[in-house]
Amino acid sequence: MKSLEELRAIKEKMQSQVNMRKPEDKTTRIVVGMATCGIAAGARPVLNTFSDLIQQNKLDSVEVTQTGCVGLCQYEPIVEVYEKDKEKVTYIKMDAERAKEIFEEHIKKGKIVQKYTISTASLK
Amino acid sequence: MLPEIALTILDIAQNSVRAEASLTEITVNADTSADTLTVIIKDNGCGMSTEQLERVTDPFFTTRTTRDIGLGVPFFKQSAEMTGGKFDIISELGVGTTTTAVYGFSHIDRMPLGDMVFTIHTLITCNIDKDFLFNYHIDDNSFALDTREFREVMGDVPLNEPEVSNYIKEFLDENIKEIVGELVI
């Protein structure tokens, strides 16, 4: 069973690393809409996919977080990608598979996946 | 309605976060002898006025300008009441809000509790400046998670750091499995 001792060990290990990470080291923020509409549309597997992939790839500069309803409920699950010094990219009608694709192309290689962006996909 | 009680809890607890609560307490209590499953979400956020409180269970109360209420509360109420249960919400401006839903545990219309690991983990790691207390009771077994304890250990290291986030997920997963055992909730 996990104990607080184990958490203390994690803390000690982190402190011993020469360069402690700072919040400003995060350069990419993935935001998943998780209001009633987002949750109902299936935001949970989307958020899970991103957090698992970030963990697996040890991408310390990327953080995943959630937001409320942005008023586009018909396009949920919605994912917004914020990168330092770049314009926000909004992806719509996400699922776990598409999240994986966005992670591989956009987050890792910096290539926006146009077919899922709100400007392209909402016209279909 | 949302397909799992855990998703409804996530939804309602986010109202607490938006109400600027510094501490949100989530209690899940399954009492098989009384045949009830009780969910309590209590926060110390901004609270609601009497007028807001009266209309909070009305799905059409939501407006695009206030954004603080929508289908979440009506879903929560309906999901409990359709299992022969009860729903209650009390609130005071400047003090906070407490929402209680009692479900009929073995009622055929009660949706499964679902993935509480995801719900609590998401609340903690996506709101790192807020505290959460999660109490889970099943008959005589219980466990508690208190982010204030984690914070005391971690100091200024945020709770969404990958190693810490992973620890919290495993902590929840192991403890929940331990107390749930073979019971289907």
Overview of the molecule:
The complex is a heterodimer of chains A (124) and B (185). Chain A is α+β, with helices and mostly antiparallel strands. Chain A is built from five helices and four strands. Chain A has helices at residues 4-16, 36-41, 43-57, 96-109, 118-121, and strands spanning 28-33, 62-67, 79-83, 89-91. Chain B is an alpha+beta fold. Helices cover 37% and strands 25% of the residues of chain B. Chain B is built from six helices and six strands, in the order H-E-E-H-H-E-E-H-E-E-H-H. Chain B has helices at 5-18, 50-55, 72-81, 116-126, 147-154, 162-180, and strands at residues 23-31, 36-43, 86-92, 96-104, 131-138, 141-146. A six-stranded mixed beta sheet of chain B has the order 3-4-2-1-5-6. In chain B, strand 3 (86-92) and strand 4 form a beta hairpin. In chain B, helix 1 (5-18) runs antiparallel to helix 3 (72-81) and helix 4 runs antiparallel to helix 6 (162-180). Classes of the chains: A alpha+beta (124), B alpha+beta (185). Chains A and B meet through helix 1, helix 2, helix 3 and strand 2 of A and helix 1, helix 4, helix 5 and helix 6 of B.
Low-pLDDT stretches of chain A = none
What are the segments of chain B in which pLDDT stays under 50 over at least 5 consecutive residues?
Answer: none
**How many individual helices of chain A?**
5
Strand order of the largest sheet of chain A: 2-1-3-4
Number of helices of chain B: 6
